[in-house]
C-alpha cells in the first residue's frame, strides 16, 4: 500500500474557483511554425485564409431550382442544370422556365424578362 503521509490534505474548491486559479496562472505560449505533419494535435494561432475564393464563383448551398419569381406558382420545364464544378457560364433562365441547381452549383444564372 502506498504511503501518502507526505500529501497535504486541503479542502476541496469549487470548479469555478479551480478554473479561475488555472486562468490566473496559465500563460499563452508563443506561436511556432511547424510542418503540416507536426501540426497534428496542435491549434492554429491565427486563421488561414485562401488567397482566392473557392469555388471561384457564387455557389448554391442547397439543391434547388432557380426560378423567375414574377412567374408565380406553377409547373415549369427545367431547361438546364448547374452542378458543382461547372462555372455557370451561359446558363440563362427565361420566364416560364427553371434551372436545377445542385449544392456547389454555380449561381451565375442570368434571368431574362
Describe the structure.
This protein is mainly beta and 113 residues long. The chain has a domain at 64-111: Beta Complex (Molybdopterin biosynthesis moeA protein, domain 3). It has one helix and five strands. A three-stranded mixed beta sheet has the order 1-4-2, with no helix packed on it. A two-stranded parallel ribbon has the order 3-5. The protein is elongated. It starts with 14 loop residues before the first helix and ends with a strand. GO terms for molecular function: ATP binding; metal ion binding; molybdopterin adenylyltransferase activity; molybdopterin molybdotransferase activity. This is Molybdopterin biosynthesis protein CNX1.
Describe the secondary-structure layout.
Elements: H1 15-25, E1 64-66, E2 78-82, E3 92-93, E4 98-101, E5 110-111
Parallel strand pairs: 2-4, 3-5
Antiparallel strand pairs: 1-4
